[in-house]
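Q: Give me a backbone?
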Amino acid sequence: MTPPKDTAFAYQEVYHYLVGLIEAASGMGEQKLPSLRQLALRLGVSVSTTKYAYALLEDEGRIHARARFGYFTRSISSAPVTANSGNLLDHVFASARQPGMLALSSDAPAMLLSLQGPLLTMERELTRQYPRSHAPLYQPLGEPELRAALAERYTRSTHNHWQAEQVYIGADLRSVLELSLGALNLGGSVALVESPCSWAILRQLQAANIRVVEMPFGDDGRFNLPALKALLTREPIRLAVLSSTVNIPQGQLMPAQDKQQICRWLAERAIWLFENDTWGELSFSKSATRYRDFADPHKLLVFSTFDKIIGGEAPYGYVLCRQQAAQFHRLFMQRGFRLSPMRQKAIARLYNSRRIDQHLTMLRALLVKRMQQLQTLLEVHGSDHWQVLAPQGGASFWLKAVRPINMQRVFERLLAERIVIAPGEIFSQQGTWNQHLRLSYSLDWDKNIVHAVQRLALAITEENRVYSP
């Protein structure tokens, strides 16, 4: 067996290998793929790396998982993208992971600075401390040490505290959201989401047969509160999915008084609040408030992942919830996640040693630096094409075209030059935000980013000529 690959982007190599297997199986009907452990042994990588690669492909709809049977291929249409084809999101993701592509669509801040090296070093040290005969067993709810570390991190006071048994850890974000919706019996209900909204959340709600009602942000990152109140009165909403601090992909912060009022309305109507804390630690403001600071603690669920901060070697998702413990236990036990105890222990040690906090300080500073660098390029090379508003956190700009334009066509023009952007409409089930795009600054800055911005400006110019009456 080849030695383990501890490189930051080992999962990309696994991803491309799996794409080759899937393409080779096209036209042959559904085919079973190697198990996580088989593939890890075959390629000389960790099981977490193979899990992360499989999760990416599952999010793209190329494969699907069957409980206790593994992963299987799923046919994907090769038809070109059109306004009505519905496969734009799949095309964006598949294109971004092709070799040689410059993915301006990325949303992986750990690409700039990861903790994967320290994580793997810690895991090796723990493995030496626990001989195989004394190694901890798989814990279906998550490793107790990591659950305790997360409970401690989210505890703010004696009135706002969490316990380890209220924390649940799963293979990825998709899995923990699926189980949470099931545990709280929210399938088939109505959900309020902020818009633009994470495509991953939209897909998971759709998979649970949940009708989505989108509430758009203004340019200032705020809701129209009277319109929101009317919507809550009019629609039978049972859950609201909202970003804890910075609104992603828009990148703005909502004032504390707005969040407090929204939480008051949700509590009056007994609406579950699902707080998306995936980007909560990446706000550039130290004083950013979170919805959970004002929410009804008995109608609150917080969910997040580790990979945005640590990197692809930590793909696990987790939730914190004080209610329906028996249902959470039952569903997580049935799913039977077999997550590496040592990897989870290593993540817990990064939290307990405050290594995570040191890393976050450096990562936020680097994100600010790259944000300012890209903002300068956007202002120099295309200020007459788009509106640039500096984000207050996260890893991307939310750009709006100055003139009406078909952003899908801009995407296609750039794709021909091996540049990938994320058109705004993939962040809405209704296909709104078609004048927008997400542009990342968590990029490989050794590449020619100046040229990419210039080509983006040119593609918009050319499309404007076509689009203009």
